[in-house]
């Protein structure tokens, strides 16, 4: 389930055709909000393109980079210029037993059923230190006919090629409202169909 091996080598090409640079821009928007030092959990990292920006802005940040696709990990390793990244082929069950200063989930939470997504969010929150930051980029629920068409085609394609669990875009922000995470900033892209947000974990 949720394995991008079949489309790893042309995933970026497909993304650019449909969304241009809007997904790249959403992922890059709040990278500067990451801490300069400490440990970052980047789960569902895909081909790792945004790693180049993280290296440039936060060169001393240690990263656990997790993706379930072996081919995505292979592609991410090709652009990794240093040894501060620990590449892991796996899922939420493969996360090292440690606390993190920051978490990144880019276009990751939309892969799961709502029940499993909520469990993953709960797990990741427990691993994040108090006042740690969590960067999210994902799709918002479609409003226009065009957006609804993209949603249908996208999930149909991903169901066939990657066997993702989810079949529609949900309001993921509602899941964060049940946690100790507080939204600090949000920006919309692609006619409000894509968003980027930064959360901070509040002390209990």
Description:
- This protein is of the alpha/beta class and 204 residues long.
- It has a single domain, classed as Vaccinia Virus protein VP39 (Rossmann fold, 3-Layer(aba) Sandwich).
- It is built from seven helices and seven strands; from the N terminus they run ααβαβαββαβααββ.
Helix content: 25-40%
Q: Rg, please? A: 16 Å
How many domains comprise the coordinates?
1
Total helices: the number is 7
Which structural class fits the helix and strand makeup?
Answer: alpha/beta
Under CATH at level 1, the class stands as: Alpha Beta
Using the coordinates shown, work out and report the CATH topology: Rossmann fold
User: Alpha-carbon distance between the termini?
Assistant: 34 Å
- The sequence of SSEs as H and E is HHEHEHEEHEHHEE
* Strands ordered across the widest β-sheet: 3-2-1-4-5-7-6
Major sheet size, sense and barrel closure:
7 strands, mixed
- The CATH superfamily label reads Vaccinia Virus protein VP39
Model regions low in confidence, pLDDT < 50 over at least 5 residues: none
Strand content: 25-35%
What's the CATH architecture? 3-Layer(aba) Sandwich
Which characteristics define this entry?
alpha/beta; 7 strands; Rossmann fold; seven-stranded mixed sheet; 7 helices; globular; 204 residues
Short description:
This protein is α/β, with parallel strands linked by helices and 204 residues long. The protein is built from seven helices and seven strands; from the N terminus they run ααβαβαββαβααββ. It has one domain: Rossmann fold (3-Layer(aba) Sandwich).
